[in-house]
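Hi team,

Filling in the usual template for the complex we talked about on Friday. All components are listed, including any nucleic acid strands or ligand strings, so the model treats them as one assembly.

SUBMITTER: L.P.
PURPOSE: interface mapping
COMPONENTS: two
RESIDUES: 806
SEQUENCES:
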Amino acid sequence: MKIDCSIDGRTLTLSLNSNKPLSLILSENIGDGSAVNHCKGQMCGLCAVLVDGKPMLSCMVPAFEIRGKEIITFEGFQKTRGMKDIEKAYEMVGAAPCPDCYESKTMIFESLISDGVSEPDEILKELSIIRCHCLDPEDAVKIVLKGIDIRRKRRVRRS
Amino acid sequence: MAERKNFSRYNMRCGILIRAEEEALHVKEIKKPETDSRYLFLTASDLPGSNTIHILDRPFPLMASERSAFSGEIIMALFAPDYESAEIMRRELKIETEKAENAEETAELPSALEYGWGEFTPQEDGEKKYKSVETEFRLRHIAEPSLRNYTVTAWMDNANLHIEAPCEWMELVRSAVSEATGYPRKNIHVHPARYASKHDEYLTAPAVLAALAATATIKTGLPTEIRDTAVFSRPGIEVKRTTLTDEDGKPLSETVSMSIDMGAYPIMPDEYQRQAMAGLIPPYPLKEFKATVSVKTSGRYPASFAGSLGYSEALASTEFHISRLAEEASMTPYQYRLSMEKEKRKFTDYLPGFELEEQKETAARAVQASTYERKWSANMFQKGDFSLLGYIRGIGMATGSGISGFSTGFSKKSGFSAVMTFTQKGNVTVNTSALCHPGIMRKWKKIISDRVIPGHPEHVMFLDYSGETADTGPDVLSRITASFTSQLDSAAKNLAVLKESEALPVSLRFDAENTYYPCEFENAGCGTAICEIMISESDYTPVVTELWAALTFPEILDESTLLGSVKRAFLTSLSENGVTIPLDFRMHITINATGVEGPVAAIGELVRALTEGALANALYQAGGKDAAVLPTSARNLEEVFGKGGKV
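RESULT (copied from the run log):
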């Protein structure tokens, strides 16, 4: 089937099986292999992308569900100002995700920061979709709060 | 060197691996479907070279030829134009197997390593009363796929064969490809891909995949890629220890036997025995000590380093035993240590006689922060009863010193080295196979330039991997970040002198390991960890509620990076040992620096030992000896506690 969607700002028309998971579409059809993992449904959590701004595990999103949606992967996100905010938050807190889950956790941090989620329980619940336990929960909350602060200041400066 | 080409996926072959579902399976027949030239099946007999590669002179088969030695052994590799076609073709493939009758001896094993000192004969005058304390420390064999997939790519460029793989030991990849394909080593070029190896899972597996991908490339003439998941495999360990103490609980003599199940094909068993022996020697004085470390094989997945090569596991067993001795002497483990350990450790063939003051200081810090003694005493009243609250608690402590890299005995044999050259143009070139960590390489450039060409780190160049690259050895046990960094520094110091006195270009070949010590290992850094666990009566899930740790290192280059690494190592170690980490889990870690120049500890090894020791002690306090088996699980604890909620 033909599916129209936007991936990292590029409008694409893809011809593929309707049930092919988004993680495989990204790694095989789009060539975005560096950022997404495909664990065949083992729930590793290392394939998070933003679908219309919401974090989702791309291995759980079948092709037919991305029709008309805007998808942002880590490959696209890392070139934005938003990424610089998160990198700065990592640096200021003195903690960052491990190389295994760096992309996935960064995408979830981005969605939490852009939604302004500051409730620790909510932050940790959102992060719990990733099985990698490399980040101290306290540091994870600090990163989000710091990220919100950095972004707010940047926007104030700009306006 | 040819850079990795941007292959079109339409012009390459994608490989999947078909593995044995059980150990000791005899492959009777493989019925391959009829395919066109776009597909390729590879079995052991299709390899142009040998089916066996060598890891430090020990044989390791690439694929099962007639029978599988372990569950998960590769039987066949299947290559297709894309992964979906390969998966579809796999369904058409029929492999007939039958259970082989007798398990086959897979590898030759070194004889048991023995070490000890002194002799103690109990007096039989009736006045002296002795107590015998026996413990058994068990770690189950783990073989779990890691979370992330990785790919190994092979392609040809005229007469050269290129491999791109995430690998902890590039020389092993090259030699494996050469052995499997018969291709000349000088024409094999390895391109390191970035990786994060928490459990040394990229040590041997990428070499095996590279050999298969290279064979497929040679046969098809097309670029080939294999996608797979690495397996984290830790050996099964059993430590039996008996200590004879006097009536005050003072240890007099001790006998230890450690048995290591390394799976089907042991990797570096001799070195494993040495590292384990270093961890088995207790910190308290003894009149007599006898230890035996033996290695055995089984039909399990071959154990890789798993972040440690026996030292952590052995040290954890020692810490577990000390807590049992303390209980027998009716003291808290912390008080027992203070009363039994002397100021200095005994000098042995494996560890020097270093001062224990720093180690005791870390213990004091952690004990104070956690109010360990109060909690320990309160928990002792539980007597294995869930009581009215419906949960049971346990708190455990472990303390010890770290080591890093390989033993002196191994280093002398291995000959891992690197070459540093000061060129006529005033540049410094480094010929090493340790090229996988761009962050560390930036630090190395600064260290070298500060010594040889101050202010010009851009003039320090690391040569790309080629046929002439010096083998610096595997990137395990923090060798590359710890030992090799100090070796580079000392080589740069020598080169700075040589460039003034010798004709240019001047080269210096140096060992990758730290200086050779009088003992097998040198202590580096120490620490204490205390962890508290809670087991609920409703589901028996072991939950770690809080962790306190105090660590001391000789020097700290970047405190926040170090703290991040330590936290990560604790979290990784806790989760691999089966405990659930709740959302409100808290870690309280303090790190001090002594400021003394010295070797840097393998953080992973030290943290792993402290976590395993503290966790086993906490589980023991909560549920007795049967509960203190790692990795723990709700199922195991349910069996231990039974339906009545009592131990």
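MY TAKE: Chain A has a mean pLDDT of 87. The longest helix of chain A spans residues 137-158.

Thanks, L.
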